[in-house]
Amino acid sequence: MISVKKAQLIISKNIRPLGFESVLLNNARNRILSQDIIANIPMPQFDNSAMDGFAVRAADTKGANKSSPKTLMMVGVSSAGVSNDIILHPGECVQCMTGGKIPKGADSIVIVENSSGFLDSKTVKIFKEAKIGEHIRKRGEEVQEGDVVISKGTCITPSEIGILATFGCEKISVMIKPKVGIFVTGNELIEPGHKIKLGQIYNSNFYVFSELVEQSGAEIVMSEVIKDDKDSLQKSFSKALQVCDIIISSGGVSMGRFDYVREVYNELGVQEHFWKVAQKPGKPLFFGTMGTSLIFGLPGNPVSSFICYMKYIYPAIQRLQKKKKNPQHQGVLTDDFPVDTKKHRYLFGRSWINSHGKLLCTPTSKMGSHMLTASLGSNCILESPPGKYKLKAGDKITINLLNWGSSK
Ligand code: AMP
Ligand code: MG
Predict the structure, then answer these.
(1) CB of 283 within 8 A of CB of 297?
(2) What's the pLDDT band for 404 if we cut at 50, 70, 90?
(3) Which of 91, 138, 228, 248 is most buried per CB count within 10 Å?
(4) What number of other Cβ atoms are within 10 A of residue 238's Cβ?
């Protein structure tokens, strides 16, 4: 049996990041950028108007008010999308729409509401004094040309999509998605939708894994429910070893009479790096490699396999795609946490920031590795290393936020 730290280290040493490929902008959602995105233009690209109004020289509007407006000559129109080279001389103004280029010589925008309006008249009355720079968006004020706007390793969310479009990127270089095979094993498993008999159990791991793999930004290329039967396991795993970057199995990896998974992996030539980790839940975790494929044999209990996925497979998928690591947080426990003297302890939990800005967390009261309802409403996994110490309410503990969990 090895420690959690050692297990994590062994896995990370065996990860060879995948290559990259080009995708179109509208297929880039949830992919990981393989290159920095550098601004090829400044943003804004030129000084432009933030409002519909008149470009003026602020000095020409000095003293203007409702009862004694200033009258300026209207010498042109500048609107978004139309390039113009109008030059503004003293005493002149230009109709300037939102996004329209600020003419040379102008230093301020008077909003249309403070003028006699967009009439087709040769002159315009200005009812309010303008301040220099007012309602002008300056070239490069948001992003300078050459700035790194998004760094490689970032996951592409709606914000990144928007910025990629803003800078005109049509094809995006992203990391290749890991190909994943999901296999759940057990003679007792029955699919949702079928009538259950005594002794059977509905297969939930398969559905949890499918969701988690999708959430992780990987691609499911194979999936099967397999009986506790050596031949069937052999057939499925050997096929998977040829096509998958990651193989995930659940069940059949403990000490039971019909637990053949580890044996079959070994017989197929998988190099075993560890089996059994000093942790609760998830002790019988198996990890091996074959070529560049990573093979994870997870125990069948639903909480064990869920937590093992989040603590070992999720980070592996991130590393394969050179994605930035999720940070851990330290939160204050509202209840005692059951530290184990010999095993790293994980529990689902709920965390939130209270009105004083303090990060608090409550571990689930459902401790059993078979109790998947513990994950309902959870937004984090709490963890404590083994040792002869206690974690009481008020003590700090490590929090791993679940990406999709909402705060309280
Ligand atoms: P095992 O690791 O195969 O000994 O399984 C441990 C426990 O997890 C048993 O009670 C199984 O019935 C349960 N289990 C195994 N696979 C699944 C699954 N796919 N969905 C739900 N429970 C499972
Ligand atoms: Mg089993």
Answers:
(1) no
(2) low
(3) 248
(4) 13
Residue 344 CB coordination number (10 Å): 22
Long-range contact set of residues 189-198: C-beta below 8 Å, sequence gap at least 24 = 189/225, 191/225
pLDDT (average), residues 103-108: 97
Which ligand 1 atom sits closest to the C-alpha of 184? 19
Beta bridge partners of 148: 38
DSSP-assigned states of every residue in 29-74:
TT-BBSS-EE-SS-BSSS-EESSSEEEE-GGGGTT--SSS-EEEEE
- CA–CA dist 408, 405 (Å, integer): 9
Supply 3's token pair.
Answer: 């420690």
Q: Is the pLDDT of residue 408 over 80?
A: no
Q: Which ligand is nearest to the CA of 299?
A: 1
Q: Retrieve residue 356's tokens.
A: 């004083």
Which pLDDT band, with edges at 50, 70 and 90, does 207 fall under?
Answer: very high
Ligand nearest to the CA of 188: 1
Please identify which residue in the block is written with the tokens 């990629």: 164
Ligand 1 in contact with 297 (CB < 6 A)?
A: no
